[in-house]
Amino acid sequence: MSTIRNPVGPQPAKVYWRRRLIVLLGLLAVILVIVLIVVRPGSGAANDGAAPSATDEPAASETTAPPSSTEVVPCTEEMIEVVAVTDAEAYDPTTQPQLSLEVTNTGEQPCTMQGGSDVQEYRITSGSEVIWTSKDCQTDPAPAEVQLQPGESVSGGPIPWDRTRSSKDTCETPREAVVAGGASYHLSVFIGDFQSEQTRQFVLN
Fold first, then answer.
1. Order of strands, edge to edge, in the sheet holding 145-148?
2. What are phi and psi of 5, to 5 degrees?
3. Alpha-carbon torsion 55, 57, 63, 66, what sign?
4. Residue 21: domain span
5. Same domain, 19 and 118
6. 175 and 92, same structural domain?
7. pLDDT by 10-residue block (mean), the chain, 205 residues
8. How would you classify residue 131: left for phi > 0, otherwise alpha for psi between -120 and 50, otherwise beta?
9. What is the 3-state secondary structure (H, E, C) of 124-175?
């Protein structure tokens, strides 16, 4: 016991005490490393589910609702623009005008609407008089649902106009030709509940 408390040797006592302190610190460091290896701090929290790992976290798509702009809704008048189209502004005496319509989604959301030939109508007027309409003698109308993305346009037609007056009673008989020689006519188009705001003017020579 006297040797431990009072180091004996040729060196001063403080030299032996310093060596013993270094050895003691080394032993403490080794013990601390062993304890850390055995205990592994934090591993118990991960195992009991208190802190989810990266693979346990839900994907962003599962927790974040999709933006409203991607939701498909029924088309409304505020979202839809319908335009009457002809393939020319003036026609010579032997040329039949080709009638079309163009529908554009001017809204900020995708939308769906009925756009088949069963709900399309091409109507030609002169002044306030209806001269011809595609509904009078339409054959084999077909329904179709159309989905439009924001800014997307789709077209209907073209269908020819034979430059005659129409009525439901003259579909199988010769019909009266309209006035030409520079006469002006207007095309309006309808598709379901939607219609062109402006008519398309053209001239028959």
1. 73-74, 111-114, 145-148
2. -75, -35
3. negative
4. 2-47
5. no
6. yes
7. 51 64 72 69 47 43 51 95 98 97 96 94 96 94 94 93 94 93 97 95 97
8. alpha
9. EEECCEEEEECCCCCCCCCCCEEEECCCCEEEEEEEECCCECCCHHHCCCCC
